[in-house]
Amino acid sequence: MKLGRFRNTDPTGRRGERVAARWLRKNQFRVIGRNVSVGVGEADIVCIAPDKRTLVIVEVKARKLSDRDRLPPEASVGAQKQHKLRLVAKALAKRPGFDNRPVRIDVIGVDLPAKGKPIVRHHPSAVGG
Q1: Model's pTM, two decimal places?
Q2: d(C-alpha 13, C-alpha 42), whole Å
């Protein structure tokens, strides 16, 4: 199945998405799309969970570690963004190949230090249906 795509132009966001996709793959998720655009919005990452059945829509929030005095980046996924993610999940779940699958929305927060390894925080089912 081919998923629509748009280009993220924010360098911090792009790096965070790359880190998150790598983390997901290392943790047995199968990434099937990045920056997936559907009529109602966009998903940073779309993947299949390690159970090989669940469709997972992933919202990635990243920040440079120098911004540490603020809340973690994933805390910025407010009610409006959650609503939009639910609409994206519903639209993707209707596509051929994805129907009849459980669907969930995860959030990944990524801290990007100037040197050293990024810090990844995964929040499964962070956005309820």
Answers
A1: 0.88
A2: 14
DSSP state of 8: -
Q: Assess whether pLDDT exceeds 80 at residue 85.
A: yes
Give residues with Cβ within 8 angstroms of 14, minimum separation 6. Answer: 8
E-state strands within the chain: 30-38, 41-48, 55-64, 103-112, 119-127
Strand partners, 109: 61, 121
Surface-to-core class of residue 128, CB atoms within 10 Å of its CB (0-12 exposed, 13-18 middle, 19+ buried): exposed
DSSP-assigned letter for residue 107: E
Percent of the chain at pLDDT exceeding 90: 64
Q: Based on the number of CB atoms within 10 Å of its own CB, is 45 exposed (0-12), middle (13-18) or buried (19 or more)?
A: buried
Contact (CB, 8 A) for 112 and 19: yes
**What tens digit of pLDDT does each residue of 14-30 get?**
999 999 999 999 999 99
**pLDDT above 70: residue 38:** yes
